[in-house]
Design goal:
Blueprint (H helix, E strand, L loop, with lengths): L7 E6 L5 H10 L4 E7 L3 H11 L3 E2 L3 H5 L6 E4 L6 H10 L3 E4 L7 H14 L3 E3 L7 H11 L6 E9 L19 H17 L3 E9 L4 E3 L9 E3 L5 E8 L4 E7 L8 E7 L3 E4 L9 E4 L6 E4 L12 H12 L7 H20 L3 E2 L22
Parallel strand pairs: 1-2, 1-4, 2-3, 4-5, 5-6, 7-12
Antiparallel strand pairs: 7-13, 8-11, 8-17, 9-10, 11-12, 13-14, 14-15, 15-16
Length: 373
């Protein structure tokens, strides 16, 4: 049965910490999607979601969810190292998938996902969708309109001392599929490839500064976590258009601020908002002005709009127009991240083979919560 004009139905696999904003936005904001049911390994989480958001179905496990003909898209918000297994199982069951970042924990897993989706004729979309928000969409329009001239370089810095002091379950950040690059890197890289273009090669120096971490947040306060991944990554990106970028991500450094994302052009510099958010501020420096200018947001969705990419994919599924937060982009970001880690390990420049087609800017004039067709 075709979807037609009805809302596209979403089944949640995983109802952890980030699920709350998805649940809120799908039930309150985005009119093209609706939740048909949820499941979680910790059943109480799913039960609480069902009760709080009046969700029709509570599944015993993900396989029961996959078997439900009412589910159009599986929303995979499990832990990073579980993304591959859940996505592959959903695809084998004939379901479209939208996954939290990253697409997979390794490039080999990502290739399998892409191949199976193509074989089955199914869509795979994925986070982060923050690049669809008002902040980065405005920056993209400014660059397209020549406000900084031709981009010649860019830089992104994600600096903090890890999550063990505040996150309720921080262990996975230091395990396979985690680390600052795979956890936060997708926000920065997704923004940069949308603003500057595809990456053709990377190089990096990487290390692990601390072998263990002491959790000081509840409920695991006092537990020791063995660190299995690199937590200090200093990378360089060579873009297809000739621009050169810097990406620094770390869980090892005490730092008073957070995001720094900049794009450098032949005629000026654009200071991009925190790519972990959807809004501003946006600042522009041009030499003839002699000072940094604050610029207004020119697009919708400046608030926390997670599920925006999922809603966009749902419209794509229904109408056939290209999805913006699609797997060709998330796979490219995955290849960049693995390339940086491989470069650090093998001490050589790594060629990036994947590319993705530029996506259209978000449309103006749509009712909030309704996307363009």
């Amino acid at each position: 049965m075709g979807i037609g004009k009805r809302p596209v139905r979403i089944g949640f696999v995983g109802v952890g910490a980030i699920s709350g904003i998805y649940l809120k936005n799908i039930t309150e904001t985005f009119r093209d999607i609706e939740i048909v049911g949820v499941c979680d390994l910790i059943r109480e989480r799913a039960e609480n979601a069902v009760k709080k958001y009046n969700i029709p179905k509570l599944y015993n496990d993900m396989y029961e969810l996959f078997a439900d003909p009412e589910v159009d898209i599986v929303l995979n918000i499990t832990r990073p190292y579980e993304h591959y297994g859940v996505t592959m199982a959903a695809l084998r069951a004939g379901k479209h998938v939208y996954s939290e970042k990253p697409l997979a924990a390794t490039l080999a897993e990502g290739r399998e996902i892409m191949a199976l989706a193509k074989e089955k004729g199914l869509m795979v979309g994925g986070a982060p969708d923050t690049f669809l928000g008002a902040g980065i969409q405005t920056c993209k329009k400014l660059i397209q309109d020549g406000f900084i001239g031709r981009p010649v370089g860019c830089a992104g810095f994600m600096i903090c001392h890890g999550h063990e002091t505040w996150h309720p379950d921080p262990e996975f950040y230091y395990k396979h599929g985690g680390g600052p690059l795979f956890d936060m890197g997708p926000y920065y890289l997704t923004a940069l490839v949308n603003l500057v273009g595809c990456v053709e090669s990377v190089s990096a120096m990487t290390k692990k500064s601390f072998d263990q971490r002491l959790i000081t947040s509840q409920p695991h306060r006092g537990e020791i976590v063995d660190v299995d991944v690199d937590t200090y990554i200093a990378g360089t990106l060579r873009f297809e258009n000739g621009a050169v970028g810097t990406l620094f991500t770390t869980f090892d450094v005490y730092y008073p601020g957070q995001a720094r994302l900049e794009v450098y052009g032949t005629e000026g510099t654009l200071f991009v908002p925190d790519p972990n958010t959807f809004g501003g501020p946006i600042r522009l420096f041009r030499p003839e002005q002699g000072e940094v200018m604050d610029l207004p947001l020119a697009f919708d969705y400046k608030e926390n709009s997670r599920a925006l990419g999922l809603a966009d994919m749902a419209v794509s599924l229904r109408t056939g127009r290209p999805a913006r937060a699609y797997s060709d982009m998330t796979f490219h970001v995955l290849e960049i991240m693995e390339g940086l880690l491989t470069s650090g390990r093998e001490r050589r420049e790594i060629t990036i083979g994947s590319r993705f087609a530029p996506k259209a800017l978000m449309a103006h004039g749509c009712m909030h919560g309704v996307l363009d067709e």
